[in-house]
Structures are given as C-alpha cells and as structure tokens.
UniProtKB/TrEMBL annotation:
Cited PROSITE patterns: HTH_GNTR (PS50949)
Swiss-Prot/TrEMBL keywords: DNA-binding, Transcription, Transcription regulation
Organism: Kytococcus aerolatus
The keyword Transcription belongs to this UniProt entry's keyword annotation: yes
Domain HTH gntR-type, chain residue ranges per copy: 21-88
CDD domains the record matches: WHTH_GntR
The protein's name in its UniProt record: DNA-binding transcriptional regulator, GntR family
Pfam families xrefs: FCD, GntR
Leader sequence residues: none
C-alpha cells in the first residue's frame, strides 16, 4: 500500500466527454484518472490538504469530488478516520464484469450500426493494433505498469468506437473500478500480461468488420478475466 503521506503523481486523464470539467466535477475527473492509471491502491488513505493544494481547489470542493467518487464505488468515507480508496470485494468484481460486458459488447454492437460500409474506421483499428504492439513490447521489457496502462487504453478505445459520449463516460467509471480490482490481485503483473493476446485477438475481427464475432470474443474474454480477477483476489486474501 502506498504511504498515506504521499500524494501520487497525477495520471493523464482519459478523453474528455462534453465540456471541460471544473470544480467538484473536475476534482472527481482527476481523482478518477489517478485510480484508472493505477496510481491509487485499494485501501490507500487520501490526504485531503495535499490533494486540495495540488488541484488548486478548496477542501470543500475536494470533498464534493470525494462524494462523487464514493457514489461510483471508487472511494469510501470512514467516520473519524478519513477517505480511503475502495478495496473491491468478490461481489464488486462480479458486478463490475457484468457491467463491462453490457457496456463494452454494447459499444461494439452500436459501432456496427454506425459503421460505414460495414467496416470499422481504419484509424480506429490502427489505434487498437498500435496499442497491442506497444503492450507486447512492454511485456517483453517487463514493464507491467505500462502493460496495465495500455490495457486500459485499449478498452477505452473500444468503448469510444461508436462515438457515444454517455457510453464513453460509463466506460471511464468502469475502467477505473477495473484498475482497482487488478491492483487487488495476488499477481497483477501476470494478470495484465495475460490480457495482451486476448486484446490482440480482437483486432483482425474488427479489421474484417465482423463486429458480431468481435462481441462474442470480447464477452468470452471478459468472462475469463472475471474468474482470473476473482481467483487472484481470493488468493491475495489467503496469502
């Protein structure tokens, strides 16, 4: 667990949806990006004074941001103790993956409806392929933090394919929760490395415009990942 006296470096935020977030909404967005980037560990206490200074906001505004993320299941307030990053339970992971299957597979179905000529835009497929290649290189180099970041980016790009802002917004919240679940795994490095070939398997299907097969592959992939994450969390608890 990260030392509670340390404020983590800020991760790059995901794509903005709609207008630029300010105030409590902006705080929530920046905190969510830290979670999604793997910079905040499950159970870590947040340092209110330091974060307010870092974000350039009042402590009241920061607390509003805390409340937003608490409602999303990313933070928890413990009376007389402070605000902590949520530690996902097995039930949380089951709920998360049911939602991910609905949102991510739904995004592919919507992308198919919006595709011109029945094919995914070449630039989007190229982006996904590029993320896979970078992840494969990171695995080879043993840079598993980068592998985790690239896995998040891959799924963010999938969800964004149909260009539906609400789907993108939901995806950001789910991917942040997923990163917390990964951090709770017994061996998160192995978990991220195992995701890379599954991501790679989706690229040729999307390049061929076979959205239905892509959605089936993704659904099976997420079901397998769910069991891997649950197993890793249970093993970490036993250890």
């Amino acid at each position: 667990m990260t030392d509670a006296s340390v404020v983590p470096a800020e991760a790059p935020a995901g794509p903005l949806v709609g207008k630029v977030a300010t105030g409590a909404e902006g705080c929530a967005s920046r905190l969510r990006a830290l979670v999604a980037g793997g910079d905040l560990a499950p159970g870590e206490q947040l340092v209110e004074v330091a974060l307010a200074e870092r974000f350039g906001v009042s402590r009241n505004t920061l607390r509003e941001g805390f409340r937003v993320l608490a409602s999303e299941g990313l933070l928890v307030h413990r009376p007389h103790r402070g605000v902590f990053v949520h530690s996902p339970s097995v039930e949380d992971v089951r709920d998360l993956y049911a939602a991910r299957r609905a949102v991510e597979c739904g995004a592919l179905r919507e992308a198919e409806l919006r595709a011109r000529g029945g094919l995914a835009p070449v630039e989007e497929v190229d982006r996904l392929e590029g993320l896979v290649l970078r992840a494969q290189k990171a695995v080879h180099e043993g840079d598993f933090r980068a592998v985790g970041d690239l896995n998040t980016e891959f799924h963010r790009a999938l969800i964004a394919m149909p260009g539906v802002p609400t789907l993108t917004e939901w995806g950001e919240r789910l991917l942040a929760r997923a990163r917390l679940a990964f951090r709770s795994h017994e061996v998160p490095e192995r978990l991220h490395a195992d995701f890379v070939p599954r991501n790679a398997s989706l690229v040729p299907l999307l390049a061929a415009g076979d959205f239905a097969a892509s959605a089936r592959e993704l659904r099976g992939y997420l079901a397998t990942a769910e069991e891997d994450v649950v197993g890793g969390i249970l093993a970490a608890r036993r250890g």
